[in-house]
Structure formats: C-alpha cells, structure tokens
C-alpha cells in the first residue's frame, strides 16, 4: 500500500526531531558526565557526586521540593474541591490558571518588592507589632514564592479529577451512614488520587530544578540540583560535573514519573 | 441542581477561596500599581506618573528585544506546528501498539524534563554540532521543545475522528492528497490551532532553555527581565510587566474562545 510511503513521509521530520533533540541530548549528557574538567575520560565526577557536599545538596534539594509539593497540595486540594462546587466553575478555573501564564520571572520580581526590607510585608509586620525582619534571601521566601508559583499547576489536575467524580457515589456513602471525613478518606480521595499524583509530578520535578528562583529570591542560600547544574555549566564551565548532576536529576525524574504513574489524562 | 450544589459552600470556604484568589493576584497588581509610582521604588507611593512607560517606549534596545521575542515565538511555533502535526498524523497511522507507545514516551520526554536539563543538553548539542550560540540556536531549541506539545494537542482530535469518514472519502474517489486536505485537516484544525497557541505561550514564557543556549549578542525578554531583576528594582520592569499582563489577558481571551470552539460545553456555562 502506498499508505506506508505517506506515513513515512509524515514521520520523517518528526523522527529526525526525536533523534536530534530527544535522544541525542540525553546521550550527550551521559557522555559528558564521564569527562573531567580537563577533558580526560574519568569517573571523577561520579566520585565527587558521592562526597558529603553533593549528597547534602541533593538531600536539601529534595527536602525543599518535598516541602513545596506538600504545602502546595495542602492548599490546592481544598481550593480545587471548593472550585468544583461553584456555579461558573470553568470560568473560576480559568481565573486560577491566568497567573500561571504571567512570566515566572515577573512574579519572582514582584516578591523582590513585596519581601524587601522596606517592602509591604515588612510594613505589615511592623504594624502588627512584630517588627521588620529579613524576609528576602531566606529559605522561607524561597518556599513561599515557589508554592505561589506552583499552586495553579497543582490545582488543575486535582480539579479535573474531582470534576469527573460521580456525585452519586457521595450520595451512596452518605446513605450508608459515612461521616463527611470517612467519605473523604474512603471515597473522594482514593478516586482523585490520579489527579493528586499528576499534580505532585508537575510540582516536584520543577521544584528540584528551578534555578532562577534560588538566584533571585533565596540569594544563593538555597542550592537546588538545578542551581548546581546552572552553576557548573555557565559559571564554573565544568560541563562534566554539570552533566553528572544532570544525569542524576534525569534518573530522579524517571523514578518520579514511574512512581506517579503515566499521566494519561493530561494536565 | 447546580444551585443546590452551590448552597453547600459555607461562608468559611468562601473566605478561603477569596483569600486564594487574592494571594494569586495580589503580586501582579502590586507590580502594576507601582509602575505608576514617581518615587522610583516599590514602596512609598509618591505620585502618579507615566514616566516609566515613556522610558520603556524610548528604550530602542528593549524594543528590539521584544521584537526578537515575538519573531522567535511566531517562527518557532509555526515550524513546531507543521512538524508536530505531521508527527501526530504519522503516530496516528501506526498500527503496532508497541511502536506507538515508544514514540509517545519519547514525545513526552521533553515535556516532563526540567528546563535546566533541556537547556544544558541543548547547549552541549549545539556546541558539538558547531552551531554558533545566538538567534538560530534559540530558534532551534524553541522549535524542539514546542513540537511535543503540538503532538499532544493534535492526537486527541485524530483519535476522535471516525475512520469511516476516510473510507467514505476514498469510496467517493478522493485521492490521498484530497483525503488529507479536504477531510482530515479540516477536522483536526481546532487541535492544530490549540497546538500552535500553546507553542506560542511556551516560547514566550521560556526562560531557562533560552538562558542556556543564547550567546552574548542575542536576548529574549525573559532573559532580559532576569538580568534586570538581578540588578535590583527598577520600575521599568514594572511598566513592562503591566504591559505583558495586558498582553497575557488578550491571549487568555483568545485561548478561551479557541478552546470553547474546540470542546463545546467544557468551558463556559452549560445550560
């Protein structure tokens, strides 16, 4: 059949893209991770990665990503739940998504003003009587701004999962005498776990790797895996070490994706 | 029924929702508000001025950067849409499930990959291939990371299409080309538009990948905002963000209408 010919014609540019921009870059990162800063083949980068300095950095990066994901989830779940109960829910959802379309750097920049020494947050603290504090360039500001940025991405998949929930199931649980809490724990939450997983995936992976936030908001006090990669590639110019960290980040990424399952429903 | 559901929102949860919306929008309006401050800082509002906007429009370097960003976004989305649509058509026509799944997983790699990984690996790629960092490397990377999203927007439309439609066209004597241009493409047009639009927003929003693969001579808006913000507060950036916010709102409205045409009843109010 000449169907096959056309199909191959369609697939050719796309396959070329996959080879050049998906497979090749991943292999190149792996290849570069075996070279030290002078360009000699060695495993020194892997040795360096398993020293306390890098392991500590990886752990703290994980800790921050975990905190950011958990806090986002705690805020996003009730929000998504309440949104499904509003009248014009799709419109409200759209309004939740709009801030995520504003350039991330501008939002980070806004917090430079809000959290600054004379910023509005400090004026508020003074008015309340706590007194001005150093807010910018602390771990608190990093976690706060990250959660702020990721909340819409967490709300969206949870909202979709809750929206697909069959309301008769809730009536059934109610009829069978389940309390509100039991209904939530045994019916609502298990049925929307896919949305929660998808949300955690879209938050956790970027939270490990956003380097501009740590640079702008945390003032290099927080170093995530992403910051380390950017540092090695663009400042130290040690591409080998940068690639090694990238290899581990990629491994972590695949691990998380396999843990949170395939996002079949999409975001 | 809908009304009854709404009754279940207690005043407390209403306050919670209002608070969430407030937190989400307050920083943006904060930026816009201080773009009118003649004081030059993001505290202590002195008096109303449009100076920052005037300065913005007189800054020819910045205007060139805006132009660069728009050109990159439009050209990369166009190429990504063409390649992505062809790819979706190809993937759709594959019968073997395993091949299809492999292609789909490879397709999703760039979507889930953190920007830092994409940026760093493309930097290695371009250096190895001997492509000079600058406009072309940025353009190529933007095309590359926009393709998978176009595929994901077009594929559902293709699977929605009934295969009998194509059989009917063939029976009526349509050539392969005619089937494609007169039957398939018109059917998947909403998906293609949505893909193009998403690619456009991806490209406009991207910072990290561009930051890695751009050389000294070429800058996009995000990279410029980053370097301005690292230098501290300047209300030019506020004025810029106000304009970008307006632009985003326009895009959102356009997207709203596209998606409404795409999935009737999904967005907006259903009677």
Automatic annotation (TrEMBL), chain A:
InterPro entries for the chain: MetI-like, MetI-like_sf
Subcellular location(s) of the protein: Cell membrane
Short name of any one Pfam family annotated for the protein: BPD_transp_1
One Gene Ontology term, aspect cellular component: plasma membrane
The UniProt record lists the keyword Membrane: yes
Membrane-topology descriptor: Multi-pass membrane protein
Biological process, per Gene Ontology: transmembrane transport
Domain of life per record: Bacteria
Transmembrane spans: 12-34, 62-84, 91-115, 135-159, 198-219, 239-259
Domain ABC transmembrane type-1: 58-260
Keywords associated with the record: Cell membrane, Membrane, Transmembrane, Transmembrane helix, Transport
PANTHER family referenced in this protein's UniProt entry, alphabetically: INNER MEMBRANE ABC TRANSPORTER PERMEASE PROTEIN YDCU-RELATED, INNER MEMBRANE ABC TRANSPORTER PERMEASE PROTEIN YDCU-RELATED-RELATED
Family that this chain belongs to: Belongs to the binding-protein-dependent transport system permease family. CysTW subfamily.
Name this polypeptide is given: Spermidine/putrescine transport system permease protein
Automatic annotation (TrEMBL), chain B:
Membrane topology summary: Multi-pass membrane protein
Subcellular location: Cell membrane
TM annotation in the entry: 12-36, 62-91, 103-129, 135-158, 179-201, 207-227, 239-258
UniProt entry keywords in alphabetical sequence: Cell membrane, Membrane, Transmembrane, Transmembrane helix, Transport
Family annotation (Pfam families): BPD_transp_1
ABC transmembrane type-1 domain mapped to chain residues: 66-255
GO biological process terms held by the UniProt record: transmembrane transport
GO cellular component: plasma membrane
Similarity-based family: Belongs to the binding-protein-dependent transport system permease family. CysTW subfamily.
Name this polypeptide is given: Spermidine/putrescine transport system permease protein
């Amino acid at each position: 059949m000449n169907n096959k010919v056309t199909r191959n014609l369609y697939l050719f540019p796309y396959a070329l893209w996959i080879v050049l921009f998906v497979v090749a870059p991943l292999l190149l990162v792996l290849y570069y991770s075996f070279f030290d800063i002078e360009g000699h083949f060695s495993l020194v980068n892997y040795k360096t990665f398993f020293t306390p300095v890098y392991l500590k950095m990886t752990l703290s990066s994980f800790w921050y990503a975990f905190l950011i994901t958990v806090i986002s989830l705690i805020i996003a779940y009730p929000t998504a739940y309440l949104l499904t109960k509003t009248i014009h829910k799709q419109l409200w959802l759209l309004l939740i998504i709009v801030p995520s379309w504003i350039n991330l750097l501008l939002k980070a920049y806004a917090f430079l003003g809000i959290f600054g020494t004379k910023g509005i947050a400090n004026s508020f603290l003074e008015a309340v009587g706590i007194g001005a504090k150093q807010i910018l360039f602390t771990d608190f500001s990093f976690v706060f701004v990250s959660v702020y940025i990721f909340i819409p991405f967490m709300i969206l998949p949870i909202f979709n999962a809750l929206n697909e929930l069959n309301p008769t199931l809730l009536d059934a649980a109610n009829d069978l005498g389940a309390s509100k809490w039991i209904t939530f724990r045994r019916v609502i939450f298990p049925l929307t776990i896919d949305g929660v997983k998808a949300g955690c995936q879209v938050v956790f992976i970027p939270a490990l790797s956003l380097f501009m936030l740590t640079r702008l908001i945390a003032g290099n006090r927080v170093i995530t895996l992403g910051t380390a990669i950017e540092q090695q590639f663009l400042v130290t110019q040690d591409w080998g070490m940068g690639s090694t960290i990238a290899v581990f980040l990629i491994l972590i990424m695949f691990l998380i994706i396999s843990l949170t399952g395939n996002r079949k429903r999409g975001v | 029924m809908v009304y009854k559901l709404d009754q279940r929102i207690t005043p407390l949860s209403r306050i919670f929702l209002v608070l969430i919306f407030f937190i989400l929008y307050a920083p943006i309006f904060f930026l816009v508000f201080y773009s009118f401050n003649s004081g030059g800082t993001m505290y202590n509002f002195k008096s109303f001025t449009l100076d920052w906007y005037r300065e913005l429009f007189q800054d020819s370097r910045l205007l060139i950067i805006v132009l660069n960003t728009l050109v990159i976004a439009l050209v990369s989305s166009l190429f990504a849409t063409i390649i992505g649509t062809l790819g979706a058509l190809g993937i759709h026509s594959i019968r073997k499930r395993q091949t299809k799944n492999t292609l789909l997983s490879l397709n999703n790699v760039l979507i889930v990959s953190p920007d830092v990984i994409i940026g760093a690996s493309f930097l290695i790629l371009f250096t190895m291939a001997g492509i000079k960092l600058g406009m072309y490397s940025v353009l190529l990377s933007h095309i590359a990371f926009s393709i998978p999203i176009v595929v994901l927007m077009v594929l559902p439309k293709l699977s929605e299409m009934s295969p009998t439609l194509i059989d009917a066209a063939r029976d009526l004597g349509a050539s392969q080309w005619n089937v494609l241009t007169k039957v398939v493409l018109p059917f998947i047009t909403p998906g293609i538009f949505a893909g193009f639009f998403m690619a456009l927003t991806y490209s406009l929003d991207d910072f990290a990948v561009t930051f890695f693969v751009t050389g000294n001579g070429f800058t996009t808006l995000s990279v410029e905002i980053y370097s301005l913000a690292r230098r501290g507060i300047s209300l030019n950036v506020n004025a810029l963000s106000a304009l970008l916010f307006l632009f985003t709102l326009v895009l959102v409205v356009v997207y709203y209408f596209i998606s409404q045409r795409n999935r009737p009843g999904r967005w907006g109010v259903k009677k």
